[in-house]
Write a structure and sequence with these properties.
This protein is of the alpha+beta class and 208 residues long. Helices cover 50% and strands 17% of the residues. The strands form 2 sheets. The chain has a 3-stranded mixed beta sheet, covered by helices on one side. A 3-stranded antiparallel beta sheet has the order 2-3-4. A hairpin with a 3-residue loop joins strand 3 and strand 4. 38% of the residues are buried.
């Protein structure tokens, strides 16, 4: 029907603006302390509880929740021990599509630690093989786990998806200063445009 697609697009854009409004995005109090607290369990060689590992995997990679559970193929980058080659077939709305997106992503931990615990995590939750399961039936647990992991080191943290914004801000501060922030975020989060990526730049690091 005439106008329906335009109305849907308008409502989605409006919801996106609310989701990433500057006054509702996370404020990082101490990025190094945050990484140490949330990603610390990745340094352990043995399987850890999923409640500790999901937040860590999200923080150090910037992946979507569904990508961590099942969606992304993760490979090493020769000669780059702190990077991963990520292949994802997820698009906004977390629906799988045929076109793959690839990016070399800087991690906030060594690749070996990330891959070890990603494999452990997926083995534990191998029945989670769709976005509906990853973000629907497991949504409440995901939110609780991430909130507990973040603790008081980041204000305005309300949803697991905020981990992507936090990752993008910290990763840019460490690895991306030679390029425009929106361009860097577009690349590492595998967005189609830098306009979509600009919303993630509103995260603030207090000590900056």
């Amino acid at each position: 029907f005439p106008g329906i697609k335009q109305r849907i697009a308008y409502n989605q854009a409006k919801a996106g603006k609310r989701k990433f409004a500057k006054d509702s995005l996370p404020i990082i109090l101490d990025p190094d302390a945050l990484i140490k607290q949330v990603a610390g369990p990745l340094k352990l060689h043995f399987r850890q509880p999923g409640k500790k590992i999901l937040p860590a995997l999200l923080l150090v990679s910037g992946l979507r929740v569904s990508d961590v559970y099942f969606g992304a193929v993760v490979e090493p980058v020769p000669g780059e021990p702190d990077k991963a080659l990520i292949t994802s077939r997820l698009k906004p709305g977390l629906r799988v599509k045929g076109e793959e997106k690839k990016a070399v992503v800087p991690l906030l931990c060594p690749f070996t630690e990330f891959k070890r615990h990603l494999d452990f995590f997926r083995a534990e939750f191998k029945n989670v093989d769709s976005s509906e399961k990853a973000t629907g039936s497991r949504g409440k647990s995901n939110k609780q786990w991430c909130s507990e992991a973040i603790g008081n080191l980041c204000s305005n943290f309300t949803r697991p998806h905020h981990m992507r914004a936090i990752y993008a801000k910290i990763a840019y501060s460490k690895f991306g200063k030679d390029e425009h922030e929106a361009t860097f975020v577009q690349r590492v989060l595998m967005h189609d445009t830098d306009k979509a990526a600009q919303a993630y730049s509103h995260v603030m690091i207090v000590q900056e």
